[in-house]
């Protein structure tokens, strides 16, 4: 009986396979495809792999380090060139010039351009071992107005003259070993500004449209008019050229400052912008300053003399035309203010007044001579509580000499109940 190949194969496979045949048998076994796994995903409990260095590189190419046998002969990279510092100005140019300027009506400022070597040379030739500054009045002749012995290393000096509207010039020199005066350099003459108020009380007015700002006028004058020309003269020149936008000569008023203009200016500087609360003198001064600054773009006089009521806001030497004769104006105003519960009822002499949202109130009145009693009552909203204040104001003014009333807002009324708005 023949055995089947399958049985024979089974019978032969019964004994322990030899390593070689086992290997052959294993090689004949069907191969299975390896299970695909995501190798990029980190295993549980492991840190993520580092990012490739190329992803962290910048746009610029990395510099390759020198390598090989020539590495020891390679030159290091050159550092970036630093910007050159600006050239320093010399201490002096050695021109030997002497410059003189008037600081104010009483003081002069002198400075001279001598190098250190030049100044040391003159100091060595001097009997006193230093230079001398002479101030002459008018011209460099005769005895000097003043003579100042300078420190050896000084390059400038302030000289007191105490005279306004006077021409001076300076001379720099020294006394030689024999005591003779030796000139080094001389300045041009300068004139100190006047320290007195001008006797010319006339003024000129220039009217500008409201839409024409002073900055626009200044730029226009710089473009058209020659340099160092006064503003009013420049406007006259522009008007003569037919420049559009400037008012005609007929619209410009000239003459002395009239009481009507003073009153109109006082109205412009009135206290209408003040909130109806009490303000001090500093706040009032600040308000007037804001009026003056804010009026630059409106139709206002240019170069005019301001009212005497605001002349204290500027120095008398600020270019304003101030009357020479002495004068005195005075006036008085009254401000009543207070506060209570916002829902309370407040009356002044029986007239109900309107409270602000916070319960405050204030009223501003003129205060002429006379007596003005006022009763102010505050009543709670439920009517169970009432408070009363009797106010008694009196003004009795006595004048000695010529005293006038300072301009006042014409809208102000005496402190009476009928004038409570």
Discrete helix count:
7
Total number of beta strands: 16
Q: Would you tell me the overall average pLDDT?
A: 74
CATH architecture label name of the domain at 98-191: Sandwich
State the share of residues found in helices, binned by percent. Answer: 10-25%
Secondary-structure element pattern, one letter each: HHEEHEEEEEEHHHHEEEEEEEE
- Structural Rg: 48 Å
Question: The CATH topology of the domain at 98-191 is what?
Answer: Immunoglobulin-like
The major sheet is characterized as: 5 strands, antiparallel
| N- to C-terminal distance | 142 Å
Strand content: 15-25%
Give descriptors for this structure.
four-stranded antiparallel β-sheet, 421 residues, alpha+beta, Immunoglobulin-like, 18% helix, extended, 16 strands, five-stranded antiparallel β-sheet, disordered N terminus
Describe it for me?
It is a single chain. With 421 residues, the chain is of the alpha+beta class. Among the domains are: 98-191, Immunoglobulin-like; 214-305, no CATH class; 329-419, Immunoglobulin-like, CATH 2.60.40. The protein contains 7 helices and 16 strands. The protein starts with a helix and ends in a 16-residue tail after the last strand. Residues 1-14, 19-27, 271-282 and 295-323 have low confidence and may be disordered.
């Amino acid at each position: 009986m023949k055995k089947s190949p399958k049985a024979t194969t089974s019978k032969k496979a019964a004994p322990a396979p030899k390593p070689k045949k086992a290997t052959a048998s294993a090689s004949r076994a069907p191969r299975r495809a390896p299970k695909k796994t995501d190798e990029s995903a980190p295993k549980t409990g492991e840190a993520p792999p580092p990012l490739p260095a190329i992803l962290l590189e910048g746009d610029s190419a990395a510099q390759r380090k020198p390598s090989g046998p020539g590495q020891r002969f390679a030159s290091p990279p050159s550092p970036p060139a630093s910007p050159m510092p600006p050239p320093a100005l010399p201490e002096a140019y050695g021109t030997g010039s002497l410059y003189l300027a008037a600081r104010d009506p009483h003081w002069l400022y002198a400075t001279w351009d001598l190098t250190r070597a030049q100044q040391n040379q003159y100091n060595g030739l001097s009997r006193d071992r230093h230079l001398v500054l002479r101030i002459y009045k008018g011209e460099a002749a005769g005895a000097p107005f003043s003579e100042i012995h300078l420190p050896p290393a000084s390059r400038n000096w302030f000289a007191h003259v105490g005279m306004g509207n006077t021409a001076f010039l300076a001379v720099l020199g020294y006394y030689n070993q024999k005591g003779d005066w030796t000139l080094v350099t001389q300045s041009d003459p300068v004139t100190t500004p006047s320290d007195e108020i001008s006797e010319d009380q006339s003024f000129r007015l220039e009217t500008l449209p409201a839409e024409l700002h002073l900055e626009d006028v200044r730029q226009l004058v710089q473009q058209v008019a020659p340099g160092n020309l006064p503003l009013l003269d420049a406007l006259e020149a522009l008007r003569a050229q037919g420049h559009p936008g400037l008012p005609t000569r007929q619209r410009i008023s000239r003459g002395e400052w009239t009481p009507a203009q003073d009153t109109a200016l006082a109205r412009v500087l009135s206290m209408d912008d003040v909130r109806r609360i009490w303000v001090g003198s500093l706040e009032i001064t600040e308000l007037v300053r804001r009026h003056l600054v804010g009026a630059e773009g409106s139709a206002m006089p240019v170069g005019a003399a301001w009212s005497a009521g605001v002349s204290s806001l500027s120095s008398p030497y600020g270019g304003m035309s101030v009357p020479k004769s002495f004068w005195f104006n005075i006036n008085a105003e009254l401000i009543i203010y207070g506060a209570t519960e916002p829902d309370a009822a407040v009356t002044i002499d029986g007239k109900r007044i309107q409270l602000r949202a916070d319960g405050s109130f204030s009223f501003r009145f003129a205060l002429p001579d006379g007596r003005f009693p006022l009763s102010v009552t505050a009543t709670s909203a439920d009517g169970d509580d009432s408070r009363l204040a009797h106010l008694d104001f009196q003004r009795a003014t006595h004048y000695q000499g010529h005293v006038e009333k300072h301009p006042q807002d014409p809208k102000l009324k005496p402190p009476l109940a009928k004038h409570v708005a």
